[in-house]
Every structure is written in structure tokens, then in C-alpha cells.
């Protein structure tokens, strides 16, 4: 059984309304451009496809997309948007669930690999991606860079949003690489706040690169966002692309991976 926390029905029903900014054309446009360019004429597989925020519009662009999703409630919301024949979804965890066929692209967006709370499971996620990729195919992850340098001595919390409708902050367990994301969200017009929290395992880019090498994948590119901004030591997140070798025993070593 995966260590991922399961989205319940209530959380799944609220998800799209709470993520309207992430579903905007300004956010999704560059994401879809990036992913569609890598998929080319091939098929794409989204790990943790959720309610289809990315998969549905990517399919509308003509990319055949399939998904793996741990929460039946999230998948049920997606199914209201598109039928199974158009966008097939398999229920299961992204570290071990296998779907038929080969893909030119496997992708995992919006920090979702951090839902796997152990290093072993994250390694298995990379292996599962490699298992599904055709030779020359790519695995893409979007993940935040742990903001640990913002922590002065003895402090364990970092705020990431303070607004009229939402207060969010992360607390860190530096020994086990676990962060807990805390949310106070204003519901309705009565001024009440709903409290929620979720656990995540954070990982540095270099750690992910080692996971990729264990799975037989090579780093091809790393940028700071979906528009291709160069990745630097000040970047808050990264989009990383690893490639499966074209043939057994052949490794791909690009001359430059940060641009």
C-alpha cells in the first residue's frame, strides 16, 4: 500500500474551485505547450491525474492521454468532464500501477511526487515511469525546491500564502524530509475558516537525478518554470526532464542541462 494520503469525496468536490488560478490560461498555456512539445506524435501518461486539470486540455490539443489516479473520488470528478474512451484512467498508486502500452511522455505535475512519503516509493515511481516509456521517451516532474534557507535557527515554519481567503504555511521535519502543508481556507460568507493539512516528502533536484539514474533515465533538461526560465540557485521550483535511452546500454549525456 502506498503511503500517499487519500483524497476524500469532500476534498475532491472542492478541488477545482480551490485551484481556479492553477487552471487559468496563464498557468495552463505554458504547461500544455511544454508537455505537448515533448509528447510529439506519441501518447502521454499522467501520474496522479486528479480531476484532469492538465490531462483534459492536453487531450483537447490532440495528445492521446491516459492517467493513473489513487483517489476514486478525484477520478469521478474527472469522469464528468470526459469519458473513459477519450481519456482512460486506472485507479491505483503511481509507484506500482501498470497500464497497457508504451508512452513517449510520462509526467507528474504540481509537486505530486511529494505525496509519496518515503524515498523507496519515490524511487519506485521513477522505475514505474521508465517501465511505461518507449525508448527515447521522457519523464517530466514539476516540484518545488525546499525553502529551507528561509528557516532561521529553531524556526520550523515557512508561510507561502497570506490573503483574505487563505492562510498557508509549511512546517518541516528536517530529519525525515517531511513537510506538512497547513491551510486555513475561508468558506462561504460567514467568515469561518476550514482547517486542513497534508504531509509530503520533499526532495532536492540532485536526489531526484539519482532516483532517475537508478531507474535508467538520464537528465536532459532542468528549468525554473514551464516557459523555460533558466534554473538557478534562487529558483523556487523546477521542471525536470529525464530521458530513457534509445537502446539498451546507451546513455544520454546532454552538453548542457540547465537551459
Q: Quick one: overall form?
A: globular
Radius of gyration: 18 Å
Proportion of residues in helical segments:
10-25%
Question: In the CATH hierarchy, what is the architecture of the largest domain at level 2?
Answer: 3-Layer(aba) Sandwich
Number of domains: 2
Given as residue ranges, the uncertain stretches (5+ residues, pLDDT < 50) are 255-259
Distance linking N and C termini: 38 Å
Overall average residue pLDDT: 92
CATH fold name of the largest domain, please?
Answer: Rossmann fold
**Number of DSSP-assigned strands:** 11
In the CATH scheme, the class of the largest domain would be Alpha Beta
Keywords:
259 residues; Rossmann fold; seven-stranded mixed beta sheet; four-stranded antiparallel beta sheet; disordered C terminus; SAM-dependent_MTases_sf; methyltransferase activity
Question: Could you please describe the fold and organization of this structure?
Answer:
This protein is an alpha/beta fold and 259 residues long. The chain has two domains: 9-146 and 203-243, Vaccinia Virus protein VP39 (Rossmann fold), CATH 3.40.50; 148-199. The chain is built from six helices and eleven strands. It has helices at residues 9-18, 25-39, 55-60, 72-79, 119-132, 205-214; strands at 44-47, 65-69, 89-91, 103-108, 133-144, 157-162, 166-173, 178-187, 192-201, 218-223, 237-243. Strands 3-2-1-4-5-11-10 form a seven-stranded mixed beta sheet. A four-stranded antiparallel beta sheet has the order 6-7-8-9, with no helix packed on it. β1 (44-47), α3 and β2 (65-69) form a beta-alpha-beta unit. α5 (119-132) crosses α6 (205-214). The protein starts with 8 loop residues before the first helix and ends in a 16-residue tail after the last strand. Mean pLDDT is 92; it is low at 255-259.
Amino acid at each position: 500500500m502506498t503511503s500517499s494520503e487519500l483524497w476524500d469525496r469532500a476534498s475532491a468536490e472542492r478541488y477545482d474551485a480551490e485551484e481556479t488560478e492553477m487552471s487559468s490560461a496563464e498557468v495552463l498555456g505554458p504547461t500544455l505547450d511544454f508537455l505537448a512539445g515533448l509528447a510529439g506524435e506519441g501518447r502521454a501518461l499522467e501520474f496522479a491525474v486528479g480531476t484532469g486539470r492538465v490531462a483534459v486540455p492536453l487531450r483537447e490539443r490532440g495528445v492521446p492521454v491516459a492517467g493513473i489516479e489513487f483517489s476514486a473520488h478525484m477520478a469521478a470528478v474527472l469522469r464528468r468532464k470526459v469519458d473513459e474512451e477519450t481519456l482512460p484512467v486506472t485507479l491505483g498508486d503511481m509507484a506500482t500501477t501498470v497500464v497497457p502500452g508504451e508512452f513517449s511522455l510520462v509526467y507528474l505535475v504540481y509537486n505530486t511526487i511529494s505525496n509519496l512519503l518515503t524515498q523507496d516509493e519515490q524511487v519506485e515511481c521513477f522505475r514505474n515511469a521508465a517501465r511505461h516509456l518507449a525508448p527515447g521517451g521522457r519523464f517530466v516532474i514539476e516540484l518545488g525546491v525546499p525553502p529551507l534557507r528561509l528557516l532561521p535557527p529553531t524556526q520550523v515554519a515557512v508561510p507561502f500564502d497570506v490573503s483574505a481567503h487563505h492562510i498557508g504555511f509549511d512546517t518541516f521535519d528536517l530529519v525525515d524530509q517531511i513537510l506538512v502543508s497547513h491551510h486555513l481556507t475561508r468558506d462561504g460568507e460567514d467568515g469561518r475558516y476550514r482547517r486542513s493539512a497534508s504531509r509530503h516528502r520533499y526532495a532536492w533536484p540532485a536526489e531526484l537525478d539519482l532516483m532517475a539514474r537508478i531507474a535508467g533515465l538520464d537528465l536532459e533538461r532542468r528549468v525554473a518554470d514551464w516557459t523555460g526560465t533558466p534554473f538557478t540557485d534562487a529558483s523556487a521550483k523546477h521542471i525536470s526532464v529525464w530521458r530513457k535511452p534509445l537502446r539498451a546500454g546507451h546513455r544520454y549525456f546532454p552538453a548542457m542541462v540547465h537551459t
